[in-house]
């Protein structure tokens, strides 16, 4: 199995590198990674990523089927379940047969009623202050996951955690660039309208932002929107 793990790890490195090169958004990139995991982690039929914060609700960041999303909704409702335990309490949670599980009784009841899932394998992706994420693999048949599944799941969890961090930084960078462009356009409008230089135009935007308690980029976007020629035609 060692050779197989090394091969899959190499494929994951290539996949993550391609995601970075393609500048895929975070949700799309994570979905592609877990789809790959369904094909390679022994016994898996579905996969999903759970994100939660102690002060907010839990949600599915990515899922290959509606069943992982249903299970996340149940965990969110009762604040209990294997994915939460994997992230907050343990690095790995393995449920061989949900029918025989004695923990999280409310979660177990509704999971059995609403899905055919019987085997669950969850891995901590990260715990960052008050937020956490877990990678989850699921199967309808009891005892679907072996030691090989755990080994490969760990490989996927490691690479997905790294990819997520990378893609979130890319998203933040693209957002910063977009904000910079919007603010630049708004400064141009102010400079033309009020005969101000660049510094004066930015200072005016900043004062408007402070006085209205509104983000500077939102003030800028509203100004650009008000200047759009189609706006004036509709009036």
Structural overview:
63% of the residues lie in helices and 15% in strands. By secondary structure, the chain is of the alpha+beta class. It folds into two domains: 166 residues, Beta-Lactamase, CATH 3.30.450.40; 55 residues, Winged helix-like DNA-binding domain superfamily/Winged helix DNA-binding domain (Arc Repressor Mutant, subunit A), CATH 1.10.10.10. Helix 1 runs parallel beside helix 6, helix 2 runs antiparallel to helix 6 and helix 6 packs across helix 7.
Structural topology:
Elements: H1 2-22, H2 26-40, E1 46-53, E2 59-63, H3 66-78, H4 82-88, E3 92-95, H5 105-114, E4 119-128, E5 131-139, H6 147-194, H7 198-212, H8 216-227, H9 229-234
Antiparallel strand pairs: 1-2, 1-5, 3-4, 4-5
Helix pairs in contact: 1-6, 2-6, 3-5, 6-7, 6-8, 7-8
């Amino acid at each position: 199995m060692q050779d197989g793990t090394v091969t899959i790890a190499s494929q994951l490195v290539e996949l993550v590198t391609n995601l970075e090169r393609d500048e895929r958004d975070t949700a799309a990139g994570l979905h592609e990674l877990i789809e790959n995991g369904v094909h390679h982690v022994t016994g898996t039929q579905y996969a999903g990523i759970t994100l939660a914060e102690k002060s907010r609700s839990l949600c599915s960041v990515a899922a290959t089927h509606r069943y992982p999303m249903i299970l996340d909704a149940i965990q969110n409702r009762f604040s209990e379940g294997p994915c939460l335990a994997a992230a907050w309490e343990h690095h790995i949670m393995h449920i061989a047969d949900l029918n025989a599980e004695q923990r999280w009784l409310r979660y177990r009841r509704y999971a059995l009623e609403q899905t055919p899932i019987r085997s669950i394998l969850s891995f901590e992706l990260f715990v960052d202050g008050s937020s956490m994420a877990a990678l989850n693999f699921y199967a309808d048949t009891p005892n679907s996951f072996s030691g090989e599944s755990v080994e490969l799941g760990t490989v996927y969890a490691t690479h997905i955690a790294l990819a997520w961090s990378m893609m979130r930084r890319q998203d933040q960078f693209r957002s910063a660039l977009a904000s910079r462009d919007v603010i630049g356009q708004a400064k141009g409008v102010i400079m033309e309208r009020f005969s101000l230089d660049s510094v004066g135009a930015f200072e005016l935007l900043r004062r408007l932002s402070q006085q209205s308690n509104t983000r500077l980029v939102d003030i800028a976007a509203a100004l650009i929107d008000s200047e759009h020629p189609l706006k004036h035609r509709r009036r």
